[in-house]
Amino acid sequence: MPMTNKEVAAFLERVGEILEIRGENVFKARAYYSAARTIESLGEDVSKIVADGELDELPGFGEALTEKVSELVRTGQMKYYDEITADLPEGIFELLDVGDVGPKKVKLFYDKLGIGSVAELEAAARSGALAELPGMGDKSQAKILAGIEQGKEHRGRWLLSQAVPLGERIVAVVEKLEGVKRVSLGGSIRRRRETVGDIDVLVSSKRGAHVIAEFTKLDGVERVLASGDTKGSAVFSPGIQADLRVVEDKSFATALHYFTGSKEHNVRMRQLAKDRGWKLNEYGLFDGDKMLASKDEKALFAHFGMDFIEPELREDTGEIEAALKGALPDLVESRDIRGALHVHSDWSDGRVTIEELAREAVSHGFSYMTISDHSQFSHGLDEKRLGEQWKEIDRVRRIAGGIDILRSCEIDIMKDGSLDIDDETLQGLECGIASVHGSTELGAAEQTRRIIAAVSNRYVDILGHPSQRLLPDQGGMAFDVEAVLSACAARGVAVEISADPMRLDLDWRYIKTAKALGCKFAIGLDAHEKEHFGWLTYGVSMARKGWLEKGDILNTLTARQFRERLGRRRKRRKA
DNA sequence: GCCGTTTTCGGCCCGACTGTTTTCAGTCG
Asked: Could you say which of A136, A202, A243, A404 would form a disulfide bridge with A368 (CB–CB 3.0 to 4.6 Å)?
């Protein structure tokens, strides 16, 4: 089984960490980190790039990395890795996950005390041995113990949907503090990454110490990690860390740009500044000692002759070049979406009646909705029950004002690629969504054949959550993404971008590739209760991260256009 | 380990905070 991009990236990340722990040249380690990020943000499979012999064309891939990564992708192993890890204990990497512990301290702990796991670190801290080490003391020891405790409670990343409400609450409170001029979320939450490690908030004020002090007293603060004049850091219930930075208002635009990132985007922007003889940092854009005024981010980009780059695009995947050429996409917005697709009712595992769903959809401004309950394999409806449901849909359609309701179904894709509803019944659907739920462990080749077989059924209009990934940490199943996307494009089957915060699937990294292959998209809610209509914003964010415009997305069409489009496609497929 | 119409060798982002230090190292973002 070929390694996924994520696996290759994680491997390279680890090589970088080992090099740092070993005390090698930090720039050598950085080369591996940079390679890891490049692989992670690829819109195509690294195994394909290796097979095509095009790995050395990626930025940051010279002779050594090309050879080592090719070996890794082909054989699943890297001799170099075995060499540099041979004399290190296996658990040494987990030490890096402890707060306030970096490669230098790992090396120190290992060299002096032979510590090679978090358990050993904890024992050493409790015995007081850590405090005796050079450069360490009681406070450092206590901090490390606290870090170990926190790590036990929670590790890793949070869903975007968990972070956004907290982030917005912090902004709302801080905005009202005395002496605060401007406030914004920054970091990965502003870029709308599908998961975030922490919440970044930027504030402009002349009263930094006061703002930070108030921030650390907010409702929900469990622990204060740092509290200075310009920077504060606290852990909020249920364990999400938030960092607040305070700058002068004249620095707000450059600071916001800086703290929004991504790091890769920032590196490119600083380089652009350097090329022009300027200097860009969080405090401003400088020509010598002179600060080039930027009242907001738009003005900042304008200095470079660039169009404003929406935060979602700032991943260094071509947005800088496009902005310089004035060729950025006109990104889709939530208000462009007219149809609520992929809605489950209490006919399967949803909590709400069709009639209530209709009312809820109207209140969110949708003008049509597809009732897409599960089919029999996922404990949903069989052919007979579907027929009965259609009568109920007809009834609600007559009484519900201002909304069109389409007969739909989330049809299960069987292990062999067939569907669990017969064609005669499928013919009666107005929108067919086919999804994989079971048998996710097939090999990549079989999985690919299976999905392509399913989207080849003429009554399938949309491929639901293609990868079956579950955030924050469960990767998707193994299959040839490009082959499936090509099949969808050829058959006119739209690819779902699930707005379910645990899915957000198709992965935005593949969206640009999908569009280039000719795919259309459908933002699906996968709603099971009323509150889930609010998920739309997350689906739209992913579409935006994938550079999509209104015209790329089927449910920006009016109800009538949507029906016509699906109808036309079906006629073509019959012919 | 990568990279180059300023360089094929010598750079590679940099500032805030903390704790341990009498001037700095490590971590983080």
From this structure: A404
Distance of alpha carbon A196 from alpha carbon A561, whole angstroms: 37
Helices (H), A133-206: 138-153, 160-175, 187-190
Nearest to A536 by CA among A403, A339, A315, A314: A339
H or E stretch at A495? strand A494-498
| d(CA A275, C1' B5) / Å | 12
Cα dihedral sign, A332-A338-A342-A343: positive
pLDDT digits (tens, 9 = 90+) for A359-410: 999 999 999 999 999 999 999 999 999 999 999 999 999 998 889 999 999 9
Could you tell me if A138 and A236 lie in one domain?
no
Nearest to A110, CA basis, from A91, A86, A128, A131: A91
CA A390, A396, A398, A401 torsion: positive or negative?
negative
Q: How many residues does chain A have?
A: 575
Spatial distance between the Cα atoms of A59 and A44, rounded to a whole number of angstroms: 15
For residue A154, what pLDDT is reported?
58
Report the SS3 class of residue A509. helix
Closest amino acid to nucleotide B16 (CA–C1') = A231
Mean per-residue pLDDT of chain A: 92
Strand B: which nucleotides have any atom within 7 A of a protein Cβ?
Answer: 1-3, 11-21, 25-29
Domain that residue A236 falls in: 158-247
Our measurement of CA A464 to C1' B13, in angstroms, reads 42
Does residue A253 belong to any structural domain of this protein? no
Average pLDDT over residues A186-196: 94
**Looking at residue A293, which CATH number applies to its domain?**
3.30.210.10
Do A550 and A556 contact (CB within 8 A), yes or no?
A: yes
Q: How far is the CA of A513 from the C1' of B4 (A)?
A: 31
Q: H or E element: which one contains A49?
A: helix A46-51
- Flag whether A174 is in a domain: yes
Cα distances (angstroms) measured from residue A412 to each of A258, A419, A554: 45, 6, 22
Q: Are strands A231-236 and A221-227 parallel, antiparallel or unpaired?
A: antiparallel
Q: Which of A296, A325, A354 is the last residue of a domain?
A: A325
Q: Which nucleotide is nearest to A66 (CA to C1')?
A: B1
Query: Are the C-beta atoms of residues A380 and A374 closer than 8 Å to each other?
Result: yes
Local confidence band at A66 (pLDDT 50, 70, 90 cut-offs) = very high
Point out the residue nearest to B12 (C-alpha to C1'): A27
Q: Which of A70-84, A247-261, A265-279, A418-432 has the highest mean pLDDT?
A: A418-432
Contact call for residues A374 and A410 (beta carbons, < 8 A): yes
The mean pLDDT of A342-352, rounded to a whole number, is 96
> In DSSP terms, which residues pair with A203 in a beta bridge?
A183, A246
Rounded to whole angstroms, the Cα distance separating A241 from A138 reads 24
SS3 A265: helix
CA/C1' separation A87–B4 (Å)? 37
The token pair at A476 is: 């998707």
What single-letter amino acid sits at A377?
A: F
Nearest nucleotide (CA of A131 to C1'): B20
Q: How far is the CA of A446 from the C1' of B9 (A)?
A: 51
Rounded to whole angstroms, the distance from the CA of residue A228 to the C1' of nucleotide B24 is: 19
pLDDT tier at A239 (50, 70, 90 boundaries)?
confident
